[in-house]
Design brief:
By secondary structure, the protein is α+β, with helices and mostly antiparallel strands. It is built from 4 helices and 4 strands. The chain has a domain of 57 residues.
């Protein structure tokens, strides 16, 4: 860079950048560099998705420490997939069942009530 004899010296901004960068490299902060690494941070969470069968639930990717809940409404099943720290996957299957309400049997209830009334009437006549 050409300097006039009476002009004050002005440093080159590019050289200042490289000097600051070199000064920073002399004292590395390994812990900070490790924390700012490019490794993805896995957040445990819940993944919910509809599937058409157990094969699709098995093939679906689930992040480690996360839980995947897959509903198969066509077959009436729910699949829960978990992956632990070691990378082992577990798949649990739950079956949806509808509760069948049985109509009450009034004949049995009436018979037991009539028997109790007869017993009470018998005790009443004996006591009198």
């Amino acid at each position: 860079m050409y300097q006039y004899p009476y002009q004050p010296y002005q440093p080159d901004p590019a050289l200042d950048y490289y000097r600051q960068k070199a000064a920073g490299l002399q004292q590395p902060n390994y812990q900070q560099n490790f924390q700012q690494s490019n490794f993805p941070q896995v957040q445990p969470g819940l993944i919910s998705r509809s599937v058409t069968g157990i094969e699709e639930a098995r093939a679906t990717y689930v992040d480690p420490l996360s839980t995947g809940v897959f509903t198969d409404l066509g077959n009436g099943k729910i699949y829960v997939k978990r992956i632990d720290n070691n990378g082992n996957a577990s798949l649990q299957t739950f079956t949806l069942e509808t509760a069948v309400d049985r109509p009450p049997n009034y004949a049995e209830q009436i018979a037991t009530l009539e028997k109790r009334v007869a017993d009470l009437e018998g005790k009443k006549t004996e006591a009198a």
